[in-house]
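Quick question, first post here. What does this chain look like in 3D?
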Amino acid sequence: MTAHPIDLAHPHDLVGIGIGPFNLSLAALADRLPPRGDKQGEGSAGGAGSGGSAGSGGSGGMGALAVAFFDQNHSFRWHPGILIDGTTLQVPFLADLVTLADPANPWSFLSYLRNRDRLFPFYFAERFHIQRAEYDAYCRWVSEQLPTLHFGHQVDAVRWNSERDLFEVDFTQLGADGEAEALGRAHTRNIALGIGTEPYVPAPLRPLAEDPTIPVVHSAHYLDQRERLLTAGHITVIGSGQSGAEVFLDLLRHRPAGAEKIHWLARTEAFTPMEYSKLGLEQFTPDYTRYFHALPERTRDELLPTQWQLHKGIGQETIAAIHDELYRRTLHGGWPDAVLTPGVHVRTAGRVSTNRLELHLEHSRQASRSRLTTDAIVLATGYRERPLDRILAGLDPYMRRDASGRPRIDAHHRLVLDPSVTGSAYVQNAERHTHGVGAPDLGLAAWRSATILNHLMRQHTGTEPYPLPRRTAFTTFGLDDRHRTPTVPAPRGMVPLIEVR
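> Answer (accepted):
Ran it through. Tokens below.
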């Protein structure tokens, strides 16, 4: 990947930390902003031409915003350990980096297909949900062309410089081997944190997972370890979500009939399908996000755990494929040596011999306990937001927190900081506690990025380059419209509803 120079002599308008899909979306939409002084940009997203840089550039240049994005990896990588052949996104291809904010954007998925001469094959394939590997390739295509992205740059610290009214972003430039090559410091008026999530390992299994000699791996690293796992006599998969289902199915397909020797364990009451009804999905709209953000903190905390099936269930097609594979293995009599047990959790775990592991299980409804001996474990136990405190320790004196000690985040996706901090610190996928289940959803990426850029540009030029819809759902969340402004007036002669405050 071509390295682009970074202008460290002048302050940036925005520095992005982390280059996952969300900050990549932000960079792609920022690339479309018109050059400074171009009045065409007022009220529209025009002005970027055919898809090269719109002038924002690696060093600021004459773009509407001087931006730069840093990531410690040397190239874009999106969950490489779980890109199993044939697995698809759980959102339509329209949930790419830009389309739901700017359908004509040259960094769209359809533009990628056109660039690869694949538009007609995609048209005839009639696929609304694309393969994960294809989404990864699309994002990598975008990342290799945006000059504002700087891979191999590890951000070490962020501070507020009150004398200059700027954020200081300290970084280390890394060589191909990961060793430090140079130190640098960028100054910026605003930052955007897109540091993503990290694999979650339950406490009873952490000692085993931290020992590289023991075959206990998180599903995030599944493909890297698949050959090693398949040599195990018995394999246990823990976790009832989509990743657990995909790993179980992939292992099942690679094990001989009648000698599968796989256990699949889950805490949930059943291997449950993900909520995918059309009205149910409206909880992933900007309307619902605004409604959720306006709720009291305690109400939000009570509501979130009840919504697990919106994002932790299994796709219907995956459930059907698992059942089909199990059924196929009964065609000649007998049952596959595969045990699927929901409603259990791991109390403790340990080693019982050089290469044997023992899980102590408890069934929540039966109040019964049992032991399971296995040779390898795949932990499909999900991800957790990376704590912002690791990188924002320098901002801690300015940060405002809620009753649970979490960062407060406003409707513009900004950390609530002391008024003496005149810059904004935006967050992406670190605000589930304030913005709801849609925070990690790819379908809201372009909308959130556009919201951030509109807020920045209002301060910078007084314009909003990305007009966003005022209404996005048929469902009305709540008894008033605090979270949206209706675009359809009441019919003539109809008395409007009284707002309840």
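The longest helix spans residues 445-460.
The longest strand covers residues 344-353.
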